[in-house]
Design goal:
Layout: H1 2-72
Length: about 80
């Protein structure tokens, strides 16, 4: 009976360690998720900036094409 109780105590102690380890892993995962969310937000801002730059470049290219077409017109 005493051996069974000691065995149960060891198992309970191990469960506590396991729970602590799992909690630590969960906290680390939560921190990683927060860091990933920040990175995603930064990437989204960069994508928006790149999209604006592409739009500006497209407008500039259209203007250049228009000017080239004007220069090529016979006078």
């Amino acid at each position: 009976m005493l051996a069974e109780l000691e065995d149960m105590e060891r198992r309970i102690a191990n469960m506590g360690k396991t729970i602590e380890e799992k909690d630590k892993v969960l906290q680390e995962n939560a921190k990683t998720i927060e860091e990933n969310a920040k990175t995603i937000e930064e990437n989204a801002r960069t994508i928006e900036e790149n999209a604006k730059t592409i739009e500006e470049n497209a407008r500039a290219l259209e203007e250049k094409d228009r000017l080239i077409a004007q220069l090529r017109k016979p006078r």
